[in-house]
Amino acid sequence: MTSPARLDNALKLVPGTKRVYVVSGAHKIDKWLEDQARLASKKWERVEFLYLSHMTIEDILATVSKAPPGSVILYLALTQDVAGKSHTGLGLAHDLSQVSTVPVFGLFESALDTGLPEGLSSAGTLLVKERDSWL
Questions:
Q1: How big is the chain by its Cα radius of gyration, in Å?
Q2: How many CB atoms lie within 10 A of CB 19?
Q3: Contacts for 81 with CB less than 8 Å, ≥ 6 apart
Q4: What CA–CA distance (Å, rounded) separates 3 from 8?
Q5: Is the model's pLDDT at 67 over the cut of 90?
Q6: Average pLDDT of 26-45?
Protein backbone atom coordinates (compact mmCIF):
# COMPACT_ATOMS: atom_id res chain seq x y z
CA MET A 1 0.00 0.00 0.00
CA THR A 2 1.35 3.42 -0.93
CA SER A 3 1.63 6.37 1.44
CA PRO A 4 -1.36 8.12 -0.24
CA ALA A 5 -3.52 5.07 0.48
CA ARG A 6 -2.29 5.00 4.06
CA LEU A 7 -3.12 8.67 4.47
CA ASP A 8 -6.62 7.95 3.18
CA ASN A 9 -7.03 5.13 5.70
CA ALA A 10 -5.77 7.28 8.58
CA LEU A 11 -8.25 10.07 7.79
CA LYS A 12 -11.10 7.60 7.39
CA LEU A 13 -10.25 6.07 10.77
CA VAL A 14 -10.41 9.49 12.44
CA PRO A 15 -13.19 11.21 10.41
CA GLY A 16 -13.27 14.45 12.41
CA THR A 17 -9.65 15.27 11.69
CA LYS A 18 -9.09 18.96 11.00
CA ARG A 19 -5.29 18.95 10.66
CA VAL A 20 -2.50 16.52 9.95
CA TYR A 21 1.04 17.11 11.19
CA VAL A 22 3.30 15.34 8.69
CA VAL A 23 6.62 14.27 10.20
CA SER A 24 9.42 13.73 7.71
CA GLY A 25 13.03 14.76 7.30
CA ALA A 26 15.39 16.52 4.94
CA HIS A 27 16.99 13.43 3.37
CA LYS A 28 16.03 12.74 -0.26
CA ILE A 29 14.13 9.57 0.68
CA ASP A 30 12.25 11.47 3.39
CA LYS A 31 11.41 14.20 0.87
CA TRP A 32 10.14 11.65 -1.65
CA LEU A 33 7.73 10.25 0.94
CA GLU A 34 6.63 13.79 1.82
CA ASP A 35 5.99 14.52 -1.87
CA GLN A 36 3.73 11.45 -2.00
CA ALA A 37 1.82 12.70 1.05
CA ARG A 38 1.48 16.18 -0.50
CA LEU A 39 -0.05 14.64 -3.63
CA ALA A 40 -2.47 12.59 -1.54
CA SER A 41 -3.44 15.59 0.60
CA LYS A 42 -4.96 17.43 -2.35
CA LYS A 43 -8.13 15.34 -2.18
CA TRP A 44 -8.67 16.22 1.49
CA GLU A 45 -9.72 19.87 1.15
CA ARG A 46 -11.33 19.99 4.59
CA VAL A 47 -8.03 19.08 6.28
CA GLU A 48 -5.07 21.38 6.95
CA PHE A 49 -1.67 19.74 6.41
CA LEU A 50 1.33 20.99 8.35
CA TYR A 51 4.66 19.67 7.06
CA LEU A 52 7.44 19.61 9.65
CA SER A 53 10.43 18.67 7.47
CA HIS A 54 11.86 22.18 7.79
CA MET A 55 12.38 21.68 11.56
CA THR A 56 14.98 20.06 13.78
CA ILE A 57 13.94 16.94 15.64
CA GLU A 58 13.64 18.94 18.86
CA ASP A 59 11.30 21.43 17.20
CA ILE A 60 9.26 18.61 15.65
CA LEU A 61 8.74 16.99 19.04
CA ALA A 62 7.80 20.33 20.61
CA THR A 63 5.30 21.01 17.82
CA VAL A 64 3.76 17.54 18.01
CA SER A 65 3.40 17.85 21.79
CA LYS A 66 1.18 20.92 21.27
CA ALA A 67 -1.06 19.46 18.56
CA PRO A 68 -4.65 20.33 19.49
CA PRO A 69 -7.62 17.96 19.54
CA GLY A 70 -8.87 17.25 16.03
CA SER A 71 -5.32 16.62 14.85
CA VAL A 72 -3.40 13.50 13.89
CA ILE A 73 0.30 12.92 13.41
CA LEU A 74 1.47 11.12 10.26
CA TYR A 75 5.03 9.86 10.70
CA LEU A 76 6.50 9.12 7.28
CA ALA A 77 10.27 8.85 7.78
CA LEU A 78 12.99 11.00 9.23
CA THR A 79 16.45 9.84 8.29
CA GLN A 80 18.06 13.25 8.73
CA ASP A 81 16.68 16.55 10.04
CA VAL A 82 17.42 20.03 8.62
CA ALA A 83 20.37 20.43 10.96
CA GLY A 84 21.96 17.35 9.34
CA LYS A 85 21.45 15.18 12.40
CA SER A 86 20.74 11.52 11.60
CA HIS A 87 17.97 9.67 13.40
CA THR A 88 16.71 6.13 13.72
CA GLY A 89 13.11 5.68 12.69
CA LEU A 90 12.17 3.45 15.59
CA GLY A 91 13.62 5.81 18.17
CA LEU A 92 11.64 8.71 16.75
CA ALA A 93 8.45 6.63 16.64
CA HIS A 94 8.85 6.03 20.36
CA ASP A 95 9.54 9.72 21.04
CA LEU A 96 6.50 10.83 19.03
CA SER A 97 4.27 8.42 20.94
CA GLN A 98 5.55 9.78 24.23
CA VAL A 99 4.92 13.47 23.51
CA SER A 100 1.75 13.33 21.42
CA THR A 101 -1.73 13.59 22.92
CA VAL A 102 -3.39 12.92 19.53
CA PRO A 103 -3.31 9.77 17.35
CA VAL A 104 0.00 9.01 15.65
CA PHE A 105 0.09 7.01 12.41
CA GLY A 106 3.17 5.49 10.84
CA LEU A 107 4.00 3.86 7.54
CA PHE A 108 5.89 0.87 8.82
CA GLU A 109 4.71 -2.06 10.92
CA SER A 110 7.99 -2.14 12.85
CA ALA A 111 7.09 1.20 14.45
CA LEU A 112 4.14 -0.38 16.24
CA ASP A 113 6.43 -2.24 18.61
CA THR A 114 8.17 0.95 19.71
CA GLY A 115 5.22 2.55 21.44
CA LEU A 116 3.61 4.19 18.43
CA PRO A 117 -0.06 4.45 19.46
CA GLU A 118 -1.33 3.65 16.00
CA GLY A 119 0.17 2.54 12.74
CA LEU A 120 -0.34 1.16 9.31
CA SER A 121 1.44 -1.98 8.32
CA SER A 122 3.67 -2.26 5.29
CA ALA A 123 1.53 -5.19 4.16
CA GLY A 124 -1.38 -2.81 3.69
CA THR A 125 -3.38 -3.87 6.72
CA LEU A 126 -4.49 -1.17 9.08
CA LEU A 127 -3.10 -1.91 12.53
CA VAL A 128 -4.12 0.17 15.48
CA LYS A 129 -2.44 0.20 18.85
CA GLU A 130 -3.67 2.40 21.68
CA ARG A 131 -0.71 2.58 24.06
CA ASP A 132 -0.70 -0.99 25.45
CA SER A 133 -3.59 -2.77 23.73
CA TRP A 134 -4.21 -3.81 20.16
CA LEU A 135 -7.56 -2.85 18.63
A1: 13
A2: 15
A3: 25, 26, 55, 56, 57, 60, 87
A4: 9
A5: yes
A6: 89
